[in-house]
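Fold it.
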Amino acid sequence: MSASDTPAAALPPHWVVVLTLSLLLGLQPVATDLYLPALPQMPASLGVSAAAVQWTLSVLVLAFGIAQLFWGPVSDRLGRRPVLMAGLSLFVLASVVTVAAPNLSVLVVARAVQGVGLAAGLVCARAMIRDLYTPDVGAHVLAQGLSGLGVIALVGPVIGGLTAASLGWRATLALLGLFALAALIFIWRRLPETLPEHRRQQGLSVAERLRQWQGIVRQPMFRAYTALTSSTYGGLYVFLAASSFAFIEVLHVSRPVFGLVMASMSMFYLGGTLLCRRWLPHRGLTGTVRVGAGCSLTGGLWCAATSAWTLLTDHTPSPWAVMPGLWIYAIGHGMHQPCSQAGVVASFPRQAGAASALSGFVMCWIAFGISAVLAVWMKTPGLAGTLHPLTLGVALGGAITAWVALGLVQRHGRPVPDAPADEQTAS
């Protein structure tokens, strides 16, 4: 099960790898989903508009994307463990500042620092898979870690909703820091270094680094899976950014009930990762992605139909009439993510950190662009105060994801036969 040039004896215990992946990958939804039930409380508390509060989410994603370009090459040179320790420590310290933030400006800066720390965890989590396993096995192990993420994301919004309702939004931000601290202690105590000395890169000049990234971008498999992970996350990001206002302010559900809505999304996402684990051994990466594309498209069409029904009848639907489309989309997302994140680094055993970072950078810039569009949509007459920014945004994400999954991934989603790893570039 190990990568071809990594001795089996060097592998850490399987449960340590899976739990580490669950904690590191789970930190991202914890950093976003857990505090979403508290988001509508912030404008009145901080004396700002609802649109301004969206910056606490979008700036984290932006910093997360940019910082990956730093952490990825550093982890390829120094190893994963020191980068993880530094990034998680930074996240914990920034969490203390978010809890005590006296105004929105301080809160936004602290959230940006959290994004920098978060980037280290996500880059190393994806790169560790390539350090330890071959691509197909890595996707299966990653699916196990993402199943753990699903459990974390399932419980997190419920806890966040109850905490926001009883203790306020600052208490929900304190929970983020406690989660990161728990991950930091576990990794410090249990996780050995996963990148062998002989596969570490020497320091590169700026010109050499740019040439390395150019070579990575030229690789068709990298491009296909980066497009897939970006498009499926783009649709999910619409839900993350717009759902709290849509459900709490438009559909008038309580914050604890909204926590259950978030938890139900996590449950279906978890189901998607379990289906991914079931089908990967038989269908491979591209076959599993093909099934996920059907879910992405079906969920998007349901959301588009919800918007159409609302416009034609001039009635606001029940919250639970909206959910089936979102649930189906979440299943597809749970199938795409293990495949795409394993596929991104599959061809780069010596550059897994750089490839992971570059893919994450692209994904986060797309999410940042989506947040800018949503900010405009949520203030546009005819769209403001409606479900349309949420439902139409997810519908568009589902359509693009299906197009990428059934096109680019099917053409370029397998390693080029007989080509050396790190050299499978476009002709």
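Residues 417-427 have pLDDT under 50 and may be disordered.
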